[in-house]
Amino acid sequence: MGRKSNASTRNSSLVLTQTTLTAPPSTRTRSKAKRRRSPSSSTNNDPPPSSSQEQIAPTGDEIKQIIAQRLKQHTSEHWLEILNAADIWCAEVLDWPKLCATQAFEQLAMLQTLKDGGGIEILTTRIPIRVDGSLLTSEQLAPRVGQHTEKIQKEFVL
To answer: Alpha-carbon distance 24 to 143, whole Å?
Structure first.
């Protein structure tokens, strides 16, 4: 079945505290009729909301900003070590030159050259699918829009 993860390792390796994920002080409020209590509202140092309004929880965009700021505090290698120790699948995101230089990319034979028969050749990536163990590749470029219209109209008497 699936891999078992060690909860004690996960808890000790991932050090994301409640204060790490709390939103910066905000002046955004909503009326009592539509209020929603933030789990962190009781632990922050903001002044209490007015009697007619209450502070709301951070939005998805605010949470993404908080996480992005936290991630920038350390290198990719640092975060990869923590995530790997916690048995969380992860990998470094590579730019094009670094990806092309990897042994895995070379072994997968992900590049192919496509031709149009008129002298145009394009180096591109191929679909990473194998059929009966064989690579699925093509040497022919996709046709230009309308390239075969006349042929199809004649063939099907359109």
So the answer is: 53
| Residues paired with residue 131 on neighbouring β-strands, in sequence order | 134
Mean pLDDT of the chain: 75
Cross-strand partners of 140: 115
Question: Where do the domains of the chain lie?
Answer: 7-85, 96-155
Please tell me the distance from the alpha carbon of residue 97 to that of residue 40, in angstroms, as a whole number. 43
Q: Structure pTM?
A: 0.44
Q: Is 55 exposed, middle or buried (0-12, 13-18, 19+ CB in 10 A)?
A: buried
**CA separation for the pair 35, 26 (Å, rounded):** 15
**Cα–Cα distance measured from residue 106 to residue 109, given in angstroms and rounded to the nearest whole number:** 5
Each residue's pLDDT tens digit, 79-125: 999 999 999 999 999 999 999 999 989 988 899 999 888 888 999 99
**What span, in angstroms and rounded, lies between the C-alpha atoms of 68 and 21?**
11
| CA distance linking residue 158 with residue 153, whole number of Å | 5
Counting beta carbons within 10 angstroms of the beta carbon of residue 23, is it exposed (0 to 12), middle (13 to 18) or buried (19 or more)?
buried
Radius of gyration of the chain (CA): 27
Structure tokens at 145: 């829009």
Q: Quick one: pLDDT at residue 141? A: 86
